[in-house]
Design goal:
Blueprint lengths: L9 E4 L2 H5 L15 E5 L2 H14 L2 E5 L15 E5 L8 E3 L4 E5 L4 H9 L3 E2 L12 H7 L6 H4 L6 E7 L5 E5 L11 H5 L8 E8 L1 E2 L5 E7 L8 H7 L6 E5 L1 H10 L2 H4 L5 E7 L7 H11 L7 E3 L2 H21 L4 E6 L5 H8 L6 E6 L4 E6 L7 H17 L15 H7 L2 H14 L12
Parallel strand pairs: 2-4, 3-4
Antiparallel strand pairs: 1-2, 5-6, 6-10, 7-11, 8-9, 8-10, 12-14, 12-15, 13-14, 13-17, 16-18, 17-18
This protein binds flavin-adenine dinucleotide (FAD).
The site of flavin-adenine dinucleotide has 38 residues, from strand 3, helix 4, strand 10 and helix 11.
Amino acid sequence: MDLLNNLPEATVITGPDLLEGYRRDESHVVGELPLAVVKPRGPAALRELVRLAKAEGFGLVPRGAGTGKAGGCTPLGRCVVVDMGEYPGTIAVSQPDLCLWAPASAMLKEVKAAALAQGLCYPPDPNSWDQCAFGGTLATNAGGPSACKYGMTRHWVLAVDALMDDGEVHRFGIASVKCNTGPSLGQLLVGSEGIFGIIVGATVRLIPEPAQRLTLLLPMERWHDLLDLPGQLVAAGYLPAAFEFWDPAVLRELRASGPEEARRLPGEALALLEFDDRDCQSEPFLEGLVEALGPQGEHLQSATGARQRDALWAVRRMTSSHLKERYPGKVSEDIVVPRSRIREFFQELEPLALPAVTYGHLGDGNLHVNLLTAGTTEPLALERQLHALFELCLGLGGAISGEHGIGLAKRDAFLRFADPFQVHSLRAIKRALDPSGIFNPGKVV
Ligand SMILES: Cc1cc2nc3c(=O)[nH]c(=O)nc-3n(C[C@H](O)[C@H](O)[C@H](O)COP(=O)(O)OP(=O)(O)OC[C@H]3O[C@@H](n4cnc5c(N)ncnc54)[C@H](O)[C@@H]3O)c2cc1C
């Protein structure tokens, strides 16, 4: 694309072979070939990109590390992918302000490590934390296992620096938890999936690194006994920093074809719990926990050393990629229901007889329902299956996405099920912030 030849402060990629890799993220969606990929290295490149996009009528598709699971960074129509991987900036931790600033290009693992190096903690922990970019986590409002205690990315963002429709980078928010100057444009950008502008950096809140962690494996003899435990625990005053689970079907799959450590996983179903309370390694804490779990408490196994803990988490983290390797055409949903409705969800899921395996974040009701055979299911039948799944979780007061977002993958379902007032309002905001429609066209709304 000749137009981009003179773009300042940028790497421009136009070779069709290289562009091919930018059609996908980690979802099942395959986008169109972009006109080019641009890796901006400064504000002059961003300014010029906005000018050209408006003048030439092409879209700008922001991209982080491409680990998204909603097809959000996959191009649609005449688009240039804006890969933020080379955008400059150094992570800066402020001890007195208990926050850090990082560029969108930093990897999330670098952001977490920078906090930890100063005895601090940045809690958001999507299971892709060692592969995804900070900017991507902001744009998708990523959440992970610790969301049941610490919330999503949104809950940690103090200020956002973003390229807006005027071609300039603006800062929305300040480095303090207190800033109450009307509705927050920074928070609007968090989770906006690149449809309002491009995030170039952000200031996020930190907390002291927890002094202790307790990681436990809870094998279940009867799978259904697991379903009330998240609610039971919080009612007894135990708030886990993670409560993950595998249902019997996914455990069977992992035992049959997973790596060595997965083949030995015990139980009909299994939970992985983690606590980070100050006294969580003390006897009274553990005794109280066993009591709160009732008869299931007898089966608790604790990970004693860091190596054992890492091994347990490695199995949890590889579940998604292992299934994807075995079933490349699988569709991975990430519906959510309130914690109090988890049992009802599974009771009502059974009669639907979906060819699904389920695992994920039981602690906050965010369940990864994976339709493994989706790649070979007739499209109309697949649509019926997904429709039934979405109706079920919406009927229980849930949502069609707990963490991955809407992107392209769930756009139709979002438009079908969302309150028309919400859709109308989001479109009005989109028109106000992006009147030329250049930012990530065709996504979300
Ligand atoms: C194995 C695995 C496990 C995962 N586990 C979780 C999990 O536990 N929780 C969770 O929430 N997600 C999870 N994900 C999904 C994904 O990793 C997260 O959504 C992550 O935040 C995406 O970051 P990314 O840098 O890869 O973004 P990308 O995939 O590159 O982009 C995601 C979206 O954000 C937009 N975007 C990216 N960068 C910017 C920017 N700078 N400005 C504006 N818009 C931008 C894109 O246009 C797109 O819409 C998982 C993915 C994998 C592969």
